[in-house]
Amino acid sequence: MEVEIIRNEKQFAEWFKFNYKDFGFTKIVRGDIGVCPDFIMEREECEVRVELETFASNFLLHKHSLEDVDEIICLIGDVELGKPVIVAENVKHKIPITVSFKIDEDLLKDAKIEAIKNDSTLSKYIEKLIRGDLK
Amino acid sequence: MKKKVTLSLDDKVYKNFQRYCEENAIMLSKKVEIIMKNIMEENR
Question: Structural domain boundaries of chain A?
Answer without folding.
Answer: 9-87, 105-134
